[in-house]
Every structure is written in structure tokens, then in C-alpha cells.
Amino acid sequence: MNGGLLRLRQALSSINPAERNAATFILENPKEVVRLSVKELADKSDSSQAAIIRLCKKIGLDGYKELKLRIAGDMTSFEKAQEEYHEFKDNDDIPTFMKTITENNVLSLRDTLHLLDKSQVEKAVQYLHNSNRIDFYGVAASQLIAQDAQLKFMRINKICTAYADAHIQLTSAATLTNRDVAVGISYSGETTQTIAAITQAKEEGAKTIAITKYGSNSLKELADVTLCISSMESSIRSAATSSRISQLNVIDILFTAVAARNFDQSVAYLKRSREAVKKVYRPE
């Protein structure tokens, strides 16, 4: 059990001052904290016991005991991987670019794995498996994630859309029913067009899923299910490439889990679609 320090780092921008005092002290003194009671931590961090308990709840933990267990796991983890996203510099050489971007992507995937709530993933898979139709909404880079999702789910015979035009997304949302699912993809969670489409889908009774960064945002508050990705991005957003990789990975998790619910049927559809393309575009 680990990921306590990661959750605290990602929550810093969305918690109140008393909670931030405690979170900052923990991040700066993790080895000491695992030996402290909640009262001792409150005294040392200029916080309060109530604020610490609230902090634990806000980052998705049952309480202070679980937080300490996760921090202890972080401390004893055998992983020696990069711990922070690195920005590129104008004088970097090609090997440095290769190493920096790859390590950023690996860190984003690892952090997202620690942030994903298993119960939320299970609920999302259930929604998608039972759906009559799936709409994927996204704008700009997130729209590319939506297209990837459409391609994957289409191949196992799930009726789905991933329209690029925001007006068509909204029109499609207005035709959903309570047998359908709408998936909103937005790293910031504040993309106006995506929020509008998800809002409309909810009004029509559809189940809604958000794929967005960890922490508080409008899309997360709106959706029935939220799948969080790592929210660490640097000043000029080179790490946006890493968030894209994490979003694609979440889509792969959902697709594979849904396909596995009807494994034999899914394999048959995948083979059929592959053979259809091969027959026309790669003739023997």
C-alpha cells in the first residue's frame, strides 16, 4: 500500500490553508510523520486534528491511519524511479530529450496507477459493458483520446461516437437515453464544450464518466464516475504529453476490461474487423 505522498502533492492546490499546512509538513518530513499521532502532527504542522482528518478524506483515504500506512509504503518502496517531472531545456541534446520525455511518461503512468480508484474503474466498466450506446467527448488533444476510444470500442461491436465538432457532440448528447453512457475527457476538467455535453447527457438520463486530473474540478463534480490521472504539469506544459499518455492508458484499461466481460465474442469481433481491413488494404 503506497501513494500517500503522491495524493498529497496532487491535492496541494485545492485544499484550505490548515490542511495545506499539514500536507506540506508531511511532504517535507515523511519519515517523521509515520511515527506521529494525529495530535502530534497537528501541533507540529500548525494545523488541527480535524483539518488532518478532513485532508485524509479529501484525498480519498479512510483516515490518518491509512495515510500513515501509505506513506510508510512510499518510504519502503523498492522503486527508485524519477520522482518529479522534468522540463526540457533549449540546450538539451537528443539523448537528453529521449530520456526526459520517456521518464516523464513512465512517471505519469505510475502516478496515475496509484491514483485510480478501483471501485470507480469497476463502475465505469460496468456502465460501458451494459451500455446501448457510448458517446466520447473531448476537445483538441482530448478529442484525439476520444477518437482512440471510439476505434477500440467499435472493434468489439459497441455502438459509439467521438465527434470532433463540439456542436455535434452536444446534439448527440441530447439524443442519449438512460441506457447510454457519455464519457467526458478533459485534463483540466474545465473545458466548456465537454462540460456542456456531459451536462446535456445527464439531463437525458445517461450515465456519465469523467477522465480528468486528480483534484477538484467542474467535470469531476458533474460526472457519476471519475477516473483520475496524474495532475503534475510543468510551467510550459511539456508534461502535457505525459497526461495524454495516461489518458490513453485509462482508455486501454476500460476497453480491455469491457472486452473481457464477453471474451470469446470480443475476440471474434476483433478478428473479423482485422480481417476486413487486411482483405482490402493488405491483400496477399
Q: How would you describe what is shown here?
A:
The protein has 284 residues and is an alpha/beta fold. It contains 14 helices and 5 strands. Strands 2-1-3-4-5 form a 5-stranded parallel β-sheet, sandwiched between helices. Helix 7 (94-115) crosses helix 13 and helix 9 (141-154) packs parallel to helix 13. It starts with a helix and ends with a helix. Mean pLDDT is 89; it is low at 78-82.
Topology:
Blueprint: H1 4-11, H2 17-28, H3 30-33, H4 38-44, H5 49-58, H6 64-76, H7 94-115, H8 118-130, E1 134-137, H9 141-154, E2 160-161, H10 166-173, E3 181-185, H11 192-203, E4 207-213, H12 218-222, E5 225-229, H13 240-261, H14 263-281
Helix pairs in contact: 2-5, 4-5, 7-13, 8-13, 9-13, 10-11
List keywords for this structure.
5 strands; 284 residues; 8% strand; alpha/beta; 60% helix; 5-stranded parallel sheet
- Secondary structure category: alpha/beta
Order of helices and strands: HHHHHHHHEHEHEHEHEHH
The CA-CA distance between the termini, in Å, is 51 Å
* Secondary structure tally: strands: 5
Low-confidence stretches: 78-82
Count of separate DSSP helical elements: 14
Portion of residues in helices?
55-70%
- Radius of gyration (CA) equals 21 Å
The strand order across the widest sheet is 2-1-3-4-5
Assembly state: single chain
Largest sheet: 5 strands, parallel
